[in-house]
């Protein structure tokens, strides 16, 4: 169901949002965050900028994955009388699932990095530990350990995502 005007509007919003570095976005939308959750710092407050930063990133990933689906498969489903929801769920999502899973893995890694950056505004987690105890107290060891934990987390996420995508890939026999 193409909606060219809606697509163009969302396309512009996504491009603008994605072009703002997360740390700047985090600070830029503090008044909006305070309006939404009642404060502009802390763990709960970081959910607002994380959502605003992640949504367009994920939207682009999903768009790319769905564009990879062969149009012939969609046409075949239409010719067999499939409805819109059937095409979305049983054709588009089913055919794009490997690519979507790879995109989810990339998005989770990016969001992990964003959440670590949220430590600058008391967002909690490893970023907060790295800033509060590593950087402000000049404890290089703590900083290095938090970086190591982030690297390990990212490696595990990537490994799991790759393993699952290989397992679910229809093209691999």
Write a structural description.
- This protein is mainly α and 173 residues long.
- Helix content is 78%, strand content 0%.
- It has 8 helices and no strands.
- The radius of gyration is 20 Å and the shape is flat.
- The model has no long low-confidence stretch (mean pLDDT 89).
What is the element layout, followed by pairings?
Elements: H1 4-19, H2 22-28, H3 30-37, H4 47-67, H5 71-79, H6 84-117, H7 125-135, H8 140-168
Helix pairs in contact: 1-4, 4-6, 6-8, 7-8
Number of strands: 0
The low-confidence runs, each spanning 5 or more residues with pLDDT under 50, are: none
- Kindly report how far apart the N and C termini lie: 33 Å
Global shape: flat
> How would a textbook summarize the main sheet?
none
- What's the helical proportion of residues? over 70%
Q: How much strand content do the residues show?
A: under 5%
Mean pLDDT: 89
**Could you spell the SSE succession in H and E letters?**
HHHHHHHH
Please identify the structural class as seen in this structure. Answer: mainly alpha
Spatial extent as radius of gyration: 20 Å
**Tally the helices: what do you get?**
8
